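INTERNAL AUDIT FORM
Audit reference: QA-55
Scope: verify that the stored structure record matches its stored sequence.
Auditor: D.O.
Record contents follow.
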Amino acid sequence: MTGSQRPIALVTGASRGRGIGAAIAIGLADDGWDVATTFWRAYDARMPWGRDEAGLAELERGLQAHGARTCPIEADLTDAAAPGQIFDAVQAELGPVTALVLSHCESVNSGLVDTTLESFDRHFAINVRASWLLIREFGTRFASEPGHGRIIALTSDHVVGNLPYGASKGAMGRIVIAAARELGPRGITANVINPGATDTGWMSEAELADLARRVPLGRVAQPRDCANLVRFLCSSQGRWINGQLLNSNGGV
């Protein structure tokens, strides 16, 4: 596909060069998609890895090198108005979205006892409410050929010691499964991927080695592993997969 014939994907949470979102965006561009992305510098700035300005620029260059038109959008997903504004911007710059990939998250470790109300509410605002609103915008605006629409969300089963993250990801997953049934008649599939612990720069060498020993395939997941599954689900060959929670974790 070339030029205006390229379908348009919106990938949220593509803010770091080593991240899963960036790998997904590049993979879809390689498959012939134009790609809009969202990011939020303030989140990265308060996380251990920090802001990645070079990664943002590298991602845009990488997408363009694969022939994709791009539309990077900085968006605070705690703002309930942000999902509508994101879709307005993408539609104005690129056109109507055919695939929505939710790879954004709020993830700050805390347990059952020490989680604060502020942290709990922030996790649910970003991981649940924003995901629901993005899915709602996509479903109401979808105008592509029936059978081509895709919703894919990344989840996690890490909840012990990471309560608000794991609980909010669980809630998000149920919303996506509901979308599979409610939006299926419009020609949209919806699936959830659990990529397992992935080497995006947040683990120490000791943690990486320990995890690799526990993976039957003998290595830690890389961002491209999840991206490859997203690419399949977004392809015509993946159109019959719907309403599923897919583990892409090397058999952990």
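Auditor finding: record pair retrieved intact. Residues 3-247 form a domain with the Rossmann fold fold (CATH 3.40.50.720).
Action required: none
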